[in-house]
Every structure is written in structure tokens, then in C-alpha cells.
Amino acid sequence: MTTVTPDTVQDVTPARRGRRVPHWLLLPGILWLLVFFVAPLVYQASTSVQTGSLEDGFRVTWHFATYWDALSTYWPQFLRSIGYATAATVLCLLLGYPLAYLIAFRAGRWRTLLMVLVIAPFFTSFLIRTLAWKTILSDGGPVVGALDSLHVLGLTDALGVTEGHRLLATPLAVVCGLTYNFLPFMILPLYTSLERIDGRLHEAAGDLYAGPLTTFRRVTFPLSMPGVVAGTLLTFIPAAGDYINAELLGSPDQKMIGNVVQSQFLRVLDYPTAAALSFLLMAVILALVTVYLRRAGTEDVV
Amino acid sequence: MRTAARPLRWLRRHLVVIAGLGTLAYLLLPNVIVTVFSFNKPAGRFNYEWRRFSTDAWTHPCDVAGLCGSLSLSLWIALWATVGATVLGTLAAFALARHRFRGRGGASGLFFLPMAMPEVVMAASMATLFLNTGVAFGFWTILIAHITFCLSFVVTAVKARVASMDPRLEQAAQDLYATPLQTFLRVTLPIAAPGIAAGALLSFALSFDDFVITNFNAGSTVTFPMYVWGAAQRGTPVQINVVGTAMFAVAVLCVLAGQLAGRRKNRRRGSRRS
User: Which residues contact A296 (CB under 8 A, 6 or more apart)?
Assistant: First the structure.
């Protein structure tokens, strides 16, 4: 370490001593990411424009048609991924907001316990929990029985989100699984932003004769927007790429783009197509996120 | 009319509580099912239907071939991934939170990016690298992949903690003739510790539970999530539910113990941050 000179002591950020320090601190992490994060993406980009086969080897031929072929073959899975992820994100927001609100404003001394109960499921393997949904949604199970006797399944069948009076292997099951798996990612940022709101603002709104609904619409919700934006992104991005829920709770009719990447890479061993699909997925997500952030109008998300 | 209005009013007043608790039930329902079915004696290979009560799986957790091996491998990988990601991430977080330098925005973005990318994309790209460079898939490729995706989470957690820390505390230490090393060890590090602990805990949980990235980079090595995945196709032994239940219980107990310890510490110091 260099010696401390008087003017650095007066400086508000005392860690300014030694101009090289941040670079040395960053070096290991940056090197790691360059080798194991950036380099893989470069390799993947090069793979996506290669042609060849597993036997003869792959060679870079700048065959951009792979992208077009992938898109024209798998656009239904792309659309489905966006649709399912959007539905799951909206459901997460609708389900997660009341719970985040409850913990932030109404829980009192139960707050810690509720937070623990939100985070704790994280620690049971998510695959085991997703498999549990198979039991919950099973054909002869109580959920299907109850919904059927209430004629809900007839309605959802008519809407096309379920099929044949069952829940498993339907779009509804996949969206239900996605919602479940990513719900904590919505609740935590929502809670963080709600918790920061000064309770006196609610009193002030009440003093100005705003009802609970008006207070929520004009005070609470706008102030929680950073949480809403962060939560929707943290839910949508992983949900759009997910393939576990579609695999375990859906049928081949519910395959998402993640399933296609997985099977192209690990089963078909068609690396160029898998790589092209990966980049297309990133491009689609990037485009949607950019549009969304423009619309949501928040500047500091990251 | 009046009799119908009262429950309605009650419902409206407690709507948030009811909806919130409903969501909580939705979150916890699978855990309840996992726990209940850990005491099941299934008829076939799959443990999806309730037959009768039995504690066999709890008393013989390692009776299923490969399960306990995969479990200890996962714990081992999670441990080393946590060490690696915490060291690299903490160093980087200090640089990003405490220093102003050229390229800071870019570096910050680079550390954020792995978190913002769908897991399949990252998994496939890493596997592409290993395939192209001829690295054999196994323990090391899994470990490298896990450190890479945990790194971002550690940086975020530590950065948040360090950024919110009052720089005057360190000035005070230096005014009292503490050397830079003493200042760091006795002031900076203790304040940053909760952030580092949070990052480490998150790394451990994420690494232990990761399936997607492991699936692409494991080769024939079987971690616990990979074992569960295989079991979903071949048959799910009850022991999987035992492990799931035990993990949940341990996590709840650890978090509650941590909270209690923290609360006691706060009370002893007699200072509560608002």
C-alpha cells in the first residue's frame, strides 16, 4: 500500500490512494469472465456461422442461412416462449404484489418469518419442487377434481389453455410452473422498493382525502415502479429461456425455445443451429427489454 | 342486505392479507407435497401417488444407487464454487464500489451481463468453448461454469453493501493512526461482511441447485440436480423427497438462527438502524 498523504485523508473517498488499486482488484474477475464468459460467446458466434457435420468436423463458412433456417423452422417455439414468459410475468406481478405489500406494510413482527418463507423454498432443489407439481396437477388429483366440478376446466378447455379436462401436459401447467419458479424473483425486488416508501406518504395521502385505492394508484404503485421493472425483467428473461417447466409439466406441444436449444445441442448435436437459436433468443429478449425499458421510463434499473 | 354487507366489508379490508397469504400458500404448496410424499411407500417406480405411510426412506436415505454420491459431489462443487466466486467477486465489488476509474461502467456491465442472460444461452456457449478447446467434461468444467455464473451474484451483493457504507468511518480510523491494513481488517471488512456472507450463501445455493448449466457442461458426471432429472425419466425414489425436505428444514432453521443472532447482536449494541 502507498503512504497516506494528508489530502487523501481529507478526501471523501479515502480509498483513492494508489491509482492502480482498482485495476489489480478487478484483474482476476475480469480475466475470469473474459476467458469463461466472453470467449465462449465468441466461440458460439463463430459456431453459428459454421457448416459441417460431427463426423467431418465443422468449418466457418459464414453460412448465415442457419439463422434464417432456425427462425423459419422454430418460430412457433419462439412465439410460445414469449407468450408463456409474458403470461408468467403478469401472473407473478399479480400474485407477488400483494405478498410483497403485505410483508412491507402489514406484517409487523411476522415480517422476518414471512421473508424466510418466501426465500426458503429456494433451498429445496427446484427440480424436486417442479416434480411436486406433477403430483398436485395429476389427472385424478384433488385440484383437477375440484376445478372440474366447478366447470372451470370446461371453460379453460374452451379457451385453449387446457385440453381434455386435464391440467398436466397443457399450456396452463407450464405457465403455472413458470410462475411458481420465478415468483420469488418478482417478490424480492418489489419488497425492496415497497419497503423504502416512507409510511408518512400514506398518511399524507389519507389526510388529503385519498381512499385506499387512490392512495395505491397515485402514491404506492408509482413509487414501487423500480421494483416492478426489476421484478418483471428478473422474471421474464429467465422464463423465456427456461426449458425445465415445459419438459416436466408440458407435452411436445408446449416445447419452448429453450427445449429446442437443449435438444439441438445435447441430442441432435447440431451445434450451428443451437448457437444460432441462442443468439436469436438473446436478440429477441434484448429487443423486447429495450422497448419495455423505454416504455417504463425508468433510468436506473441496473 | 346488511348481513351480506358485513362479510363483504371484512373481505375488502383484509383483501391484501388474504391475497398475500394465498400467494404464500402457492409458494409453499410444493414443499408441503415434497414433505408429505417423503413418508410415502409408492407402488411403482414413480412417487406421484399416495399409497401408505412409511418412514423407510428417512431411515435408509442412501439405499438408492448413486443418490448419496451425487449429493456429496454437489456439496463439494458448491463449496469450491462459493470459495472461487466469493474471492473473485469480492475483490471486483470493492474496486467497483470504492473507486472511480476509467472503464468502470464497462467493467460493471461485464459483471452484470451473466445474470441478465438466459441460462441456456450461457450454458451452451460455455459448452461450445470446452468442445472447441478439447477440455474433457467433468468436475472441472462444472466448477468453472458454476464460478462464472455465481460471480455476478457475489459482485451485486457485495457492491450493494460496500456502496452503502459511510466512508467517514474509514477516515476516522485513519485519523486515529490506523494503517491502511488495520483500517481494512478492523473497519472495512467487518462492515462489508454481511454482503460477502450473502453473496457466498447465494453462490452456494445457486451452485448446489443448478441444473441447466451443469446439464450442458457435466459430461457423464452426475450432480444431485442431474440425478433428480434422470430420476424424473426413470423413476423417482422417495429418498429424493427426503433430501428435498431436509434441505428445506435446514435452510429455514439456518435463516431463523441467523436472524435471531442478528437481532440479539443489534439489541446488545443498543443501536437500531432505521
Answer: A225, A228, A229
Cβ-Cβ contacts under 8 Å for A235 (sequence gap 6 or more):
A85, A88, A89, A92, A93, A182, A183, A185, A186
Cell triple for B187: 473497519
The grid cell for B186 is 478492523
* Amino acid code (one letter) for A107: A
Residue A163 DSSP class? B
- Give the Cβ contact number of residue A288 at 10 Å: 17
The per-residue pLDDT string of chain B (274 residues; one tens digit each, 9 = 90 and over) reads 455 678 888 888 888 999 999 999 999 999 999 999 999 988 888 888 888 898 888 998 888 889 999 999 999 999 999 999 999 999 999 999 888 888 888 999 999 999 889 999 999 999 999 999 999 999 999 999 999 999 999 999 999 899 888 888 888 988 898 888 888 889 888 999 999 999 999 999 999 999 999 999 999 999 999 999 999 888 899 999 999 999 999 888 887 887 788 778 777 765 544 4
Please, which residues have CB within 8 angstroms of residue A288's CB and are 6 or more apart in sequence?
Answer: A82, A236
Chain B CB contacts of A106 under 8 Å are 16-17, 20
Cβ distance A32 to B98 less than 8 Å, yes or no, reads no
Residue B18 burial (C-beta neighbours within 10 Å; 0-12, 13-18, 19+): middle
Q: Enumerate the β-bridge partners of residue A57.
A: A53
Q: Which residues of A touch B202 (CB under 8 A)?
A: none
Tell me what pLDDT residue A297 has: 65
Q: Do the chains contact at A125 and B209, CB–CB below 8 Å? A: yes
Using CA atoms, how far apart are residues A56 and A33, in angstroms rounded to an integer?
Answer: 32
Would you say how long chain A is, in residues?
Answer: 302
The alpha-carbon radius of gyration of chain B (Å, integer) is 24
Residue with cell 417406480: B45
Give the end-to-end CA distance of chain A in Å, rounded to a whole number. 32
Contacts with A, B 136-155, CB within 8 Å: 144-145, 147-148, 151, 155
Instruction: Round to whole Å and give the CA distance between A115 and A127.
Output: 22
CA distances from B112 to A37, B157, B169 (A): 12, 11, 28
Q: How many CA atoms, within 13 angstroms, populate the side-chain half-sphere of residue B30?
A: 25
Structure letter (DSSP) for residue A61: -
Mean pLDDT of all residues belonging to chain A = 88
Nearest to A90 by CA among A228, A193, A184: A228
Alpha-carbon torsion A134, A140, A145, A149, what sign? positive
Give the three cell numbers for residue A69.
433456417
The 10s digit of each residue's pLDDT in B161-178 is 998 888 888 889 888 988
